[in-house]
Amino acid sequence: MSSSPSSDYEPMFTRPGEASVAPRHLIPPQGSLPATARQIVEDETILDGNARLNLATFVSTWMDDDAKQVYTSSFDKNMIDKDEYPQTAAIEDNCWHMLANLWNAPDASGAIGTSTVGSSEACMLGGLAFKRRWQQARRAAGKDTSTPNLVMSSAVQVCWEKFCNYFDVEPRYVPISEEHKTLDGHDLATYVDENTIGVVAIMGVTYTGMYEPVAAIAAALDEIQKDTGLDIPIHVDGASGAMIAPFLQPDLVWDFRLERVHSISTSGHKYGLVYPGLGWVVWREEKWLPEDLVFKVSYLGGEMPTFALNFSRPGAQVLLQYYLFLRLGFEGYRAVQQESQDVAKYLSAGIAGLDAFELWNDGSDIPVFAWRLKDGHTKNWTLYHLQDRLRMRGWLVPAYPMPADLEQITVQRIVVRNGLSMDLAADLLDAITAEVAHLDALTAPMPSDHPDSAFHH
């Protein structure tokens, strides 16, 4: 006997779709009620972790209710369609000019910038500008252009490895060490040469949250230029720190105040405080973005310039960034970032107070810090075991090896973002304290099933 057609009057979880296993790899032959499809999606995603308790990610996991209204009212805007949405295009222009001023461009009206899907795309655009300018200069001098290289720390985010792989650039990694915890200009002359298209400086290393001293890197490159004549520019990967330093460390010189800094990128969806899907890149002066990288395209009745790896992409996140600039202002951003740093330093002080650990850094740069087990503290457990114990309580606090030449050191890291309140932080510190006590009470070693970290940068 065939079942009757599904209706809204049937009890939940007895309707077709809810009373069966949803297809995994094939589109179902028939549709279902909207409520049924929504219920299946919601049921499957409740298995995900709580985003607010994810202390591995730098990406925003909370926005206020008014921001959500801005978001839902602009889901359908396509950022690339500037002819159809000219005001959204104007708002994008407003935002990167605001960032050019925030980052102390000598003349923001003479700068150039764009939004991107994230800071990885922004980094690749900065790298492409470096490569193209280098190629043009080499060709003009009648020199070979086949072997460009890019110099960076061994602790760079994977997007720079991708850039070098995708765009045929040799990566030259300057190793970090216990003595030189970041790229700081030390021994830089041994890594750069006439084929170096630029140097990447990181404001907020993803492994630890530490700033690389951009002014020291620039000074080292100044000395190299005096000795060799090589004029090598800097791109600042400010995925996190470019939206922290202007508010919390305004006297720190890292940005366009340094003439050698040609471009800066950041993630609007990290400490820009916007939901996922937004990055920014700004060039100090328009001349540093080669004109032949900018396309004039005809689209939906108009002609527009575009410099991007993506084409159609959401306009909503750009509007969210503008909303936050208006909503918070400079002082509001300063207050939010200061609270995050206060929470980070509260947690790092609490963790430093436990006999098991020593800090790698304390969150004084961006609100991110890392720690490791003290040598000789225990042979019964590792930071991977603590990671697993915290995950059982709902907290995601990753453990992972440091980059090349320090891979024998395992650290654990906390990223404090807007939404991790001091009250929640106190609960986290209590959880860490309790789990360390549990692990310290073991009388035999825990099984070792973590040859590699499940966490990747």
TrEMBL record:
Its cofactor is pyridoxal 5'-phosphate. One of its GO terms (molecular function) is glutamate decarboxylase activity. Residues 1-31 are annotated as: Disordered. Its EC number is 4.1.1.15. The keyword Amino-acid biosynthesis does not apply. Keywords: Decarboxylase, Lyase, Pyridoxal phosphate. Gene3D superfamilies: 3.90.1150.160, 4.10.280.50, Type I PLP-dependent aspartate aminotransferase-like (Major domain). CDD domains: DOPA_deC_like (cd06450). It holds the Pfam family Pyridoxal_deC. It catalyses: L-glutamate + H(+) = 4-aminobutanoate + CO2. PANTHER family: GLUTAMATE DECARBOXYLASE. Belongs to the group II decarboxylase family. This is Glutamate decarboxylase. It comes from Microbacterium aurugineum.
